[in-house]
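[Amino acid chain]
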Amino acid sequence: MPDSHPQTFRVGDLLVDTGRGRVTRGEADIALPKLSFDVLVALIRAAPNLLTLDVLMERVWPGLIVSPETVTQRVKLLRNVLGDDPKQPRYIAGVRGRGYRIVAQVDVPGASASPQLAGAGSEPISAAVQHRFPWRWAGIGAAAALLLAGIITIARWHHGSGARPAEIAIQGRAVFVSPAAPRSVAVLPFDNLSSRPDGNVLALGFAEQVLHELGNLSDLTVIARTSSFAFQGRNEDARQIGQQLNAKFLLQGSVQSDAQRLRVTAELIDTDTNRQVWSARFDRTLTDIFAVQDEIALAVARALEVNIGSGARETLAGRGTQNLDAWLAYEQGRALLVTRKLADLQSATSRFTDAARLDPSFAAAYVSQAHARLLIAFFQGSDTWFEAGPQLAPAERIAIERLLAHALELDPGNGEAYIVHAWLHEGHPLDAEADYRRGLALSPNSELGYERLARLLFFYPKSGEAYDPEKREEAFAMIDRARALDPLAPMAHLTKSQFVLFGRSNLGEARSLLLQALQTEPNSYPALTILGCVEWLSGNFADAIRYGEQAIAIEPRVFWPRPFLLHFYLDAGDLAAARRMFELIPAADTWSRIPMYLYQRDWKTAGELAYTPPATFNPVDVTARFWALVQHGVAAGHLKRAKAALDQSCAARWSDDGTPVISRTSPYQDDCVEFAALMQAAGEGDRAARLLRALLSAMDYESHDLHRGELWFASARPEALALLGENEAAIKALQASFAPTSINWWYSLQLDAAYDGIRNDARFAALLAQAREHAAGERSKLEQLRAQGLVPRRGSD
């Protein structure tokens, strides 16, 4: 925020110097990133008046479209650094649904005017501003799901001798989905009007139970709890909510109760017209709460013209308990389960155990306990987001199995039990697929079931091939279903971004999906890591570094971003930072350390590491391992050993007539290309040529017939052509697919012996010169990001 009139303000015990951009408390400096400082100054200039969210967005983010979540997160970061408690604020108070104001005494040292400033934010709020509050970024038209725009922030960078605040901006784009299904409904959290201590649990649990009952009807599309409950406490227009959730109808209401009585109101709203379709009020005793839930679900289904037969009636009443205390404990656990925080998951497990103790026949309590314990195993390792399996001890696996088996004995129609069981057994794809499909037949609106089944199908093996193309096509349909059911949760968007990246070479769509995931969860370090990879593959090395560093700052324990960042820094030519990142990679993670030794031409060390399986696997390291084996075999003189290792990796078979037989859809083609290079070095030129031509045919099949694109063969194709001596074709392939902005250029263009035959070609020299020039430009951008506090400065020359 430009400050044309630098001033110094005293805010309580703080001294804020706008000219120097400095905040102090006594003798101590308080380091604030620029946006946090700008928010503080804007609030100070408006004190003692309220600064609305709209005005705050306009003053701190002029010319940008940001969401109120951005403001909320920024104020939260500011409070954290200042040590301000929002429940008992010393500096900044929030006015729910409106904005923020400074509550501390504001003085201008040396000024003769009143110590409290006249507020620049004291102007009345216009009706137009109030009407659009607060989602200025909401989609326009029924087909616009979300407009992805905003500032993605983190609290601190972890580097050097201490931690320092920083911030990062991501500009997004609209991501469109199909129009809302005609029978799609979102159940919003019911308002709590009770005086009883557990009133909020009662109200939220009531809404979730109705959502669950409706979700079991195959004729309805029911938005998941994570997305629909995101609107708790937010007074928004039904049309806006409908657009963000892509839902045709909203069910909302309130619950009021005391020790004996219960009053529930409910109404169904058409989000296209903002008109009421159905409404009712129920005055009953508290023991009738389950009957009221059933009546509301039945009435909504009828209003939406869903065919209600005897089977559907049983589904609508399929709660599993009539014990109010057991149900309340269960709902407390469900509320904790959705946060995905380790401490909450452990507390949720206890509440589900309590529910089962209070009602031993409560099947859903056993299922949710199994789900929570599986998630605890899943999230205890920070890298499991990247699809490492849950780290389950044998005893824990058996315990989860028993919980699910007991639940299915009590309720054979519990779809969630089959879905959790399938997740537990994804190592056996056929069995897992059968369980997922059975679970989804019973729970046709389970976003978890669709998301997990999509992952399974995408990587589904097929005899003789690395994946099943038909299953992969179905995976895209499944993940889109999951995204439609839970549009405001990050996981399905993150999953599809990997599908379009690895399965379609579509960098643009992958980027949009990752931005959508980050819009819903700004601190998703998996999304930031993969976004960094997308920028890296696009040649934007500085931006890749920015996102990778942010991922580490959010979760310092996470391993995956480190090997990626080593590649990013090497491609940008920042050797000092690359060395520092290399030092952060444990010695046991052997393959992740290879790129640094390749860069330094230490073929012996790189090669020896290539034979030792890493403690933590990262797919970015695989190609570097293949290169290390080639250099170890040819340059370091260990041809036989290296050739045996690559032969095992390539796994090519040879028919009786000497024709190579390879998997047409191998996840890697580089291993076989490098194996062919070693065969040439060993004097097996004819066999190598036959293998290379078979590989080129496989690349054509996968990139064109299977629509995977050329991205993943940008390195392998020109190298194969060069090894075949087809120099003209190799150069054209390099120009077409291996642009000067391509990844790992420092090895492919400078060190790979496959190109020795064309190094003197002026066109090859031009590509290398352009690559060096591009890397220099990215280093310049990187320095700008460091100057802005967006990237830490690692190492020094």
Summary: The radius of gyration is 30 Å. The longest strand covers residues 275-285. Residues 111-177 have pLDDT under 50 and may be disordered. The chain is about 50% helix and 10% strand.
